[in-house]
Amino acid sequence: MTRHAGVLVFAELSAGELDDAGKGILAEGRRLATTLGTSWAAGCFAAAGGAAQEAFRRAGVPDLVEIDGPPGLADLPEAQAEALVDAARALGAKVILLAHTDQGASLAPVMAARLSAAIFTEAVSYGRDFAGLTLRRQALGAQVVEQRIWTDAARDASCGEGAVTPLVLTMSRRALSAVVPPGTPRGEARRTSRTARVDATGEGARVTERIPPDPQTVDVAEAQVIFTAGKGCDRGTFEAMCELARLVGASVGVTRPVYDLGWTGFERMIGQTGKTVVPRLYFAWGISGSMHHVGGITESRRIVCMNLDPKAAIFPSADEGFVADVREVLPRVLAHVHAAVDSREVKR
Ligand SMILES: Cc1cc2nc3c(=O)[nH]c(=O)nc-3n(C[C@H](O)[C@H](O)[C@H](O)COP(=O)(O)OP(=O)(O)OC[C@H]3O[C@@H](n4cnc5c(N)ncnc54)[C@H](O)[C@@H]3O)c2cc1C
130 is in which domain, residue-wise? Predict the structure, then answer.
């Protein structure tokens, strides 16, 4: 029997497992349900693997709806959205919560249209007060915070369908943490299966190919590994860093003084005025570590830096630091990587 849940969280699985965004949105689902004073459930496509089941248990997911369908379901976003809408209706969910990943960003508007719901995307925080649920996101290149209020937060879903305008909410990836908050009750989720109704012959969009992002062109805000050049790099060192980044599959960033030299476009400048980044690895080459720059990199999972000055402000912000001359080290690292790449080509 399907139970009631005020919040339905979509847990995105990749090869049956949850990534950090998936774990983060589960933690957020629990927090949102507590904020709204309601129950919650998670929904996912395909059978969740062992590690995902453990993540659901650690996140204290009370109810898990596993949506089954033909193998082609993964390529039919509209059918996926329809299946999630069906699950939300069956649960009586007022809010559908998703991580703002590629999949979350494509499902959210379709679901909102099907449910005649309010939609708010890339939220970075929220809170409840007498007016409703206040949702916040960054706007105008993170210069301002935009705020909207979902006033139906105070109304109960038991008022009946139509009485409450549902909300489809996506959370910005940078607002999500895979860390399970202490005190979260753990336990096996009650598992329910649903079968997606799929019209494989329908007119809807179909994914025909998935192209991995090119680190050289991807938005630095989405990049996984970033090499950033500061004023400590001269032109030759900067070019060596760009070549090294190309060879190892990293994206290129710059500080403001380097942008001012005209070596890259504004879209590669990182920091308070530039982009905020959330990579797995951030390598700062010849960067002093001013607050205007560091403010944009603090959410990086690992920060490594190299600077001639052992007292440079970047060191306390870094997980690992090297006191060294980037103009000497970078060309040597590049030569080593070139040699390694060349020998691999020869073996092939
Ligand atoms: C309102 C405002 C907004 C700003 N927004 C941004 C922003 O978004 N992004 C941003 O980056 N800046 C921003 N800035 C500028 C910021 O305050 C700093 O001036 C800037 O980040 C410094 O860049 P840098 O570290 O490359 O240069 P520097 O501060 O000049 O540091 C260069 C560093 O390189 C080291 N170095 C020199 N030679 C070598 C070598 N051969 N090998 C190794 N290390 C070496 C030096 O020891 C030094 O620490 C902003 C400033 C203001 C006022």
Answer: 7-195
